[in-house]
Amino acid sequence: MMQTPLTMTQMMKRAELYFPKKQVISRTASGIHRFTYKQIAERTKRLADSLTKLGIEKGDKVGTLAWNHHRHLEAYFAIPCMNAVLHTINIRLSPQHISYIINHAEDKVLLVDPDILPLLEKCGSELKTVKAFIVMTDDNELPETTLSPVYHYEKLLTEANPNYHFPENINENDPAGMCYTSATTGNPKGVIYTHRGIVLHSLALGLADGGGISERDIAMPVVPMFHVNAWGIPFAGVWFGSTLVLPGPYFTPKLLAELIETEKVTITAGVPTIWLGLLKELESGSWDMGSLRAVLCGGSAAPKGMIKTFEQKYNIPFKHAYGMTETSPLALISTLKSYQEELDPEEKLELRSKQGTLVPGLEMKIVGKDGEVAWDGKEMGELCLRGPWIASKYYKDERTLDAFHDGWLHTGDVVSIDEEGFVKIVDRTKDLIKSGGEWISSVDLENALMAHEAVFEAAVVAVPHDQWQERPFACVVLKETFKGKTTKGELLDFLKPQFAKWWIPDDILFLEEIPKTSVGKFLKRTLREQVQKEVHK
Ligand code: AMP
After folding, report:
1. What is the pLDDT of residues 324-333, one digit of tens each?
2. Under a CB-based contact definition with an 8 Å cutoff, are residues 403 and 356 in contact?
3. Which end of the chain has fewer CB atoms < 10 Å from its terminal CB, N or C?
4. In terms of domains, do 420 and 442 share one?
């Protein structure tokens, strides 16, 4: 067979050639904008030309601090296709961490949204390598800023060459993108994505049993474009000619419902917190969600009760998936096998709430205390992955050795696997509750609590215990109408028939909100400290 390079250059080219009329619908601070792929392709060339004029060369890093919108999409293609490296920066990190990653990546140019400028200004004097800032504003004039030199995105594009030629000699193993993942302690760790990895991962997103993204889709990634490339949806969507809906800054559940209804979104993707918010909106308003064929949910465990409400109450198909920054991210997806459709609804729900089976193209092993675990749904071990879209190291970071050895990525996720190969994430290694030498899954308890009608959100953490080393402690946010009514006793009684006695949390703390990480996951470290204080009151 021929050895043609798997590079991203083919993606936008294909959209331009075959789908010039299809649209990118983009929400920015000034409202909704509609562009055709013909226009987006031309703007992408203009951006690449502007970056070349600003001195960007092969291998240079260009950072973005931006929401999901068309200009960010243009950067997604212009930068890798000119053989530079697209560095998407998580705007929810602290200024210290943002400065660290910009310096560590050695970004030469930064593309920034106007509302994120104040955050970047806080890093200003710390930035060692940045030569230029480009503001992606809708206004004709640049906002005032202490940063310098600053360029106006649209003015640069107007002056640029619309016929810029992307280089044709890109090596498929060249870096195309990079993203930093927050570590529990210390600085964030960088992961480099190659052209080859992105192309193969995009194919996996298109598989009928994977994401199933196709030309017919109207895809709305709600997951930020600064979090693992919005799970790769912009790459796959452009390549396949799907319509993209990019929801922009500061969206609310109401706005998402509005976009789904008016733009007839067929597939959308985000973390469970987003979908809990949307459910709340659906419960209070009257929305037409009939166009949705899939809600992709990952990043943390999707509560069973939530999947049930989406599917049974609102008739919206739900797809639970698993991945991490290090895995591009798609690794597991919970799609039922044909013969499992015959199971009764509760059994199906149980399977669908697992993270699912391995996506074709990847390899997996699950290593427990005594070697690889049995496929019995009970034994627990650490999930290890390898494959063409799994990172092989962290970027210039000695912590590489913790996670990457023997040719595998050691994910730090503790899982079990059943007879059918469905993997269930039991916990992060560090979040497991180790009680009397046995393991308790915080995720299982959280899911069970969130299935109670009064519970909006629940997180379970370990508290140190003299006799048992650790015991589970639950933190619960009640739904508005149940506040002051539902008691701890009721919730504990609800759990008792479902778990062994020693799994039942020692206590429950009612909170107004569960603290979350920059990407919307439960911030267990903060929660543990909060609970500690409560226990010692
Ligand atoms: P990140 O790199 O920020 O995307 O975080 C990756 C981590 O999120 C994984 O190692 C898991 O611990 C967790 N995670 C991702 N997807 C799921 C899921 N569907 N269920 C449970 N945990 C998940």
Report:
1. 999 999 999 9
2. no
3. N
4. no
